[in-house]
């Protein structure tokens, strides 16, 4: 079945807001325009963040292409402005 993409939408996340949890289904790709986000993992209901990324990156590109679930936790470190494209 062929997936059809819609037009770009603006998504905004506030500082400290969880963008994606582990094992969430990926329904969109986020292209980061402004701000920083942390990537980490969860063990025993505690979250640990190991990497920080910013502009000109994306969240969910691999997961959408290969129909996978997210393996990491993504959290907005600062105000985050993104462009999102969703699959139908």
Strand segment tally: 8
Rg of Cα set = 13 Å
Helix content: under 10%
Q: Estimate the mean pLDDT confidence.
A: 91
End-to-end Cα distance, whole Å, is 11 Å
* Secondary structure category: mainly beta
Largest sheet: 4 strands, antiparallel
Uncertain parts: none
Shape by Cα distribution: globular
Order of helices and strands: EEEEEEHEE
Architecture overview:
The protein has 88 residues and is mainly β. The protein is 7% helix and 49% strand. The strands form 2 sheets. Strands 1-8-3-6 form a 4-stranded antiparallel β-sheet. Strands 2-7-4-5 form a 4-stranded antiparallel β-sheet, with no helix packed on it. The protein starts with 8 loop residues before the first strand and ends with a strand. The mean pLDDT is 91.
Secondary-structure blueprint:
Blueprint: E1 9-13, E2 18-20, E3 28-34, E4 37-43, E5 46-53, E6 58-59, H1 61-66, E7 73-76, E8 80-86
Antiparallel strand pairs: 1-8, 2-7, 3-6, 3-8, 4-5, 4-7
Please tag this protein with its features.
single chain, 88 residues
Summarize the structure.
This protein has 88 residues and is mainly beta.
């Amino acid at each position: 079945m062929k997936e059809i993409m819609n037009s770009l939408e603006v998504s905004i996340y506030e500082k400290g807001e969880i963008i994606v949890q582990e094992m969430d289904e990926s329904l969109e790709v986020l292209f980061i325009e402004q701000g920083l986000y942390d990537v980490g993992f969860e063990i025993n209901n505690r979250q640990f963040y190991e990497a920080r990324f910013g502009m000109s990156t994306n969240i969910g590109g691999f997961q959408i292409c290969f129909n996978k679930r997210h393996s990491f936790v993504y959290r907005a470190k600062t105000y985050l402005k993104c462009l999102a494209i969703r699959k139908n």
